[in-house]
Amino acid sequence: MTFSFRPVPDDPRLAGLVERLRGYLDGELAAYERDNGFTHDSRLTRADLEPVWKRSRELGFYGIHLPEEYGGQNLTRTQLAVLKEEVGASGRVLGHSVLGDMGGPLRAGDILRHATGHQRDIYLLPLVRGERACCFSLTETDAGSDVRAMRTTAVRDGDSYRLTGHKVFSSAGPFADFAIVVARMAGTEDTYSAFFVDLDSPGCRVTEGATPMSGEHIESDIVLEDCRVPAANLLGEEGRGLRIALGRVTVNRLLHCPSALGAARRALELSRDRALTRTVDGRPLIALQAIQHKLADMAADLYAARSMTYAALAALDRGEDVRTEAFLCKLFVAEAAFRILDQAVQIHGKEGLTQGNEVEYLFRKMRMFRILTGTSEIQRNGIARRLATLT
Q1: Which of these, 252, 214, 248, 244, lies nearest to 81 by C-alpha position?
Q2: Per-residue pLDDT at 2
Q3: Which among 5, 17, 133, 315 has the fewest CB atoms less than 10 Å away?
Q4: In terms of residue numbers, what domain contains 314?
Q5: Do 248 and 375 have their domain in common?
Q6: Where is 182: in which H helix or E strand?
Q7: Are residues 215 and 350 in the same domain?
Q8: How many domains does the structure of the chain reveal?
Q9: 7 — phi, psi (to 5°)?
Q10: DSSP H/E element including 261
């Protein structure tokens, strides 16, 4: 894997997809954002995002990773990661809606194989077509890294379940029609189930969530007060909800890394350009050895992070167990991306400290990645546990 700001995949088919994706991101989507004045802290509405979902679907990008029977192109995880990195490197405000991260097929995760025919028809196929949107509700105020501390409960009641609890950080909640909710079965200590919950159901309220340090208004709280959910909405078997959820998290944890790599790549390119064009004492900034060394360290971090991520994805595509590698990649990519952004801010100086500057936004975004999808400390715990069992 050679180093480049605009890498070209060896596979001609994938190279063609990357070229078309870049054209859409830099052309039509950029114009849509510019015409509407969208920024990363804009309060986006469903009406703002739906045109992107549908246009991306028309172009073949929305849900592109899915099997052909669902309108996708049956991409490998590695191929999908290449596209996710490109989106991350584009700097587009609405990039999260192109492949289906924001309420679309990627937000739902790998749950098609757990869904019944009824659930596919009512929830997942409309999701794939960009007609419906979803959020994933697992986290609670005191149940983040320790998900087993969740207090949301489900009680079987005839041909339905009654759910009560309060979920937080439900990304895409402001735009979603339904949530995939994980709840503990009432009266048990360690039995969890997952459910499709229509967000307009009686007893279900979607409230404004906390605004993360990235400034994006994409989070909601899901408040359930004796919310009745049909038994037909149980995802998988009763008692297997946490396994479904954590299985989704393991794969998604690895697939979040390319997005962070794209952001880091963008920051390095912006820093290189800044160093070439900014003058100090009549010389370009890049003439200073201190700046040269910063850029070199940033490039080394990016190359190492990319290499290990794509090696792990290749192993995942071969069907290998990559739980250890997922922990390793999430840890290293999160820490390396933050180091890169920290140096990018330093190189940009005052501009890097100014709200509205892209590097300043990316710095805040990458700081979050050290916590989201499992903190760096949780990744280290997982790595240590795996090392203890290796031969």
Answers
A1: 252
A2: 83
A3: 5
A4: 243-389
A5: yes
A6: strand 178-185
A7: no
A8: 3
A9: -60, 145
A10: helix 241-277
| CATH number where 315 lies | 1.20.140.10
Residues 6+ apart with CB under 8 A from 349: none
196 beta partners: 180
What's the whole-model pTM score?
0.94
Nearest alpha-carbon partner for 383 in 245, 194, 238, 253 = 253
- Distance, in Å, from the CA atom of 107 to the CA atom of 110, rounded to the nearest integer, reads 9
Tokens (6 digits) for 372: 């989201």
pLDDT in tens, 304-317: 999 999 999 999 99
Question: What CA–CA distances, in Å, run from 374 to 29, 214, 227, 307, 342?
Answer: 31, 17, 29, 21, 21
C-alpha distances in angstroms, 215 versus 148, 210, 219, 222? 29, 10, 11, 20
Domain assignment of residue 118, yes or no: no
Tokens of residue 245, six digits: 């959820």
How much is the average pLDDT of 341-353?
97
- A 10 A CB-CB count for 189 gives 7
Residue 166 backbone dihedrals phi, psi, to 5 degrees: -140, 110
Which of 102, 117, 151 is the C-terminal boundary of a domain?
102
In a domain, 112, yes or no: no
Same domain, residue pair 64 and 90 = yes
Token pair in block for residue 26: 């830099």
Which structure tokens are listed for 152?
A: 């949301």
Residue 182: give its domain's CATH number.
2.40.110.10
pLDDT given at position 212:
95
Judgement on whether residues 247 and 376 belong to the same structural domain of the protein: yes
Q: What is the total residue count of the chain?
A: 391
Give the helix/strand (H/E) hosting 336: helix 323-348
